[in-house]
């Protein structure tokens, strides 16, 4: 029998929690909550609507927002598109300048580039060597026509946390709106939108044990965005389309579990990280690329001196990890996030992201470290 690789790619996606899967399954078949939540003419529709609204409350409770500020989307890619394009188009009379950074998720960077072709202006900020955006750097980029700033709460490759409170204050003082991609921060950092100066925030279910294909955009009361998808006027006109009851209840349950088990979960991740870092630091030629002090607890980005990461991934076939690099036919491009924080192309191509989560055990970390001890000398001196 072939056993499954040990999963160290939680930052790419997580398995669905069985408790979430149970709730989702109840929304599919004839006996379940299958009706259209927009059907107002019968009880089955009302029950489906109730299920959707309950999930909306569960999502808003984790981030301390009003349920009316949550707009369902197909994921964070759509939420980022809606936030940037929807806001810039709706507010183009006030200004056409957007500020973001070079190490955002592609869903932000590519949306910003698409906006440039529509005549909007974009400034891409450069982070420091750990991936943080400095408040001064942001201040200097703001212009009279800046209407929106979009920065991530935590980076998906290196886990670096931005000071959202401080950056948001600067944006607010300037009178612009602040969008935050919080995908990698949710369930790892405590987010309180009653306190944070954030106007829009992107979320997704599948990175915290919910299903793929569902996410949400928090849109603070008073913020105006244009819809990207037109139709029946669902989600108060911001995002039309029949609501995916099973996906939505799954996301609600995942967010509710994240809230309930927050401390336990973070402790678990911190213990795993400590164990992994302790083991890695004993191995020669290993360099930790991220700043463990200001980083989400489930991501460790590691450079292996003199070893190309693709070769190492092949040798570590009993484990599932990723590099941030992208293959373009003949060439391999290093991760734009790692080169974006000033790393050389060579070092970036020697780096691997280990990310772990709810179902990772101490034993998994031990197995990984043992395997590294075994294969690194072989690969280096072959
Ligand atoms: C995964 C991810 C996204 C994209 O989310 P999807 O729901 O898969 O579209 C956006 N931003 C960050 C930081 C991510 O890690």
From TrEMBL:
EC number: 2.8.1.7
Transmembrane segments: none
KW Metal-binding (keyword) present: yes
Keyword terms of this UniProt record: 2Fe-2S, Iron, Iron-sulfur, Metal-binding, Pyridoxal phosphate, Transferase
Single GO MF annotation: metal ion binding
Top EC category: transferase
Record domain Aminotransferase class V: where: 6-368
Gene3D superfamilies: Aspartate Aminotransferase, domain 1, Type I PLP-dependent aspartate aminotransferase-like (Major domain)
Cofactor annotation: pyridoxal 5'-phosphate
Keyword Metal-binding appears in the UniProt entry: yes
InterPro entries: Aminotrans_V_dom (IPR000192), Aminotrans_V_PyrdxlP_BS (IPR020578), Cysteine_dSase (IPR016454), PyrdxlP-dep_Trfase (IPR015424), PyrdxlP-dep_Trfase_major (IPR015421), PyrdxlP-dep_Trfase_small (IPR015422)
Reactions accelerated catalytically: (sulfur carrier)-H + L-cysteine = (sulfur carrier)-SH + L-alanine
Family: Belongs to the class-V pyridoxal-phosphate-dependent aminotransferase family. NifS/IscS subfamily.
Listed name of the protein: cysteine desulfurase
Taxonomic source organism: Chromohalobacter japonicus
């Amino acid at each position: 029998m072939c056993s499954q690789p040990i999963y160290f790619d939680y930052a790419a996606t997580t398995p669905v929690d069985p408790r979430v899967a149970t709730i989702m399954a109840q929304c599919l078949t004839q006996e379940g909550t299958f009706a259209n939540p927009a059907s107002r003419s019968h009880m089955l529709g009302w029950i489906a609507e109730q299920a959707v609204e309950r999930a909306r409350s569960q999502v808003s409770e984790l981030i301390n927002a009003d349920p009316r500020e949550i707009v369902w989307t197909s994921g964070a890619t759509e939420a980022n598109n809606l936030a940037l394009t929807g806001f810039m188009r709706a507010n183009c009379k006030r200004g056409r300048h957007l500020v973001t950074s070079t190490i955002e998720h592609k869903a932000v960077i590519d949306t910003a580039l698409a906006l440039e072709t529509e005549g909007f202006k974009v400034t891409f900020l450069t982070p420091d060597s750990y991936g943080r955006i400095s408040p001064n750097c942001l201040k200097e980029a703001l212009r009279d026509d800046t209407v929106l700033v979009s920065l991530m709460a935590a980076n998906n490759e290196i886990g670096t946390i931005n000071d959202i409170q401080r950056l948001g204050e600067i944006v607010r003082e300037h009178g612009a709106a602040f969008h935050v991609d919080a995908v990698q921060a949710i369930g790892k950092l405590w987010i309180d939108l009653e306190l944070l100066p954030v106007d829009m925030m992107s979320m997704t279910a599948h990175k915290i044990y919910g299903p793929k294909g569902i996410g949400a955009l928090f849109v603070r009361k008073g913020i105006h965005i244009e819809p990207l998808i037109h139709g029946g006027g669902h989600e108060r006109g911001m995002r039309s389309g029949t609501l995916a009851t099973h996906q939505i209840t799954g996301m609600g349950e995942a967010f509710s579990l994240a809230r309930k088990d927050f401390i336990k979960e973070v402790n678990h991740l911190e213990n795993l990280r400590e164990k992994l870092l302790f083991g890695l630091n004993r191995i020669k030629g290993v360099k930790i690329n991220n700043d463990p002090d200001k980083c989400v607890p489930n991501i460790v980005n590691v450079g292996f001196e003199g070893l190309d990461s693709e070769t190492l991934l092949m040798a570590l076939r009993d484990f599932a990890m990723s590099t941030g690099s992208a293959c373009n036919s003949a060439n391999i491009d290093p991760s734009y996030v790692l080169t974006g924080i000033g790393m050389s192309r060579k070092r970036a191509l020697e780096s691997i992201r280990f990310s772990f989560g709810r179902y990772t055990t101490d034993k998994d970390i031990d197995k990984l470290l043992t395997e590294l001890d075994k294969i690194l000398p072989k690969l280096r001196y072959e």
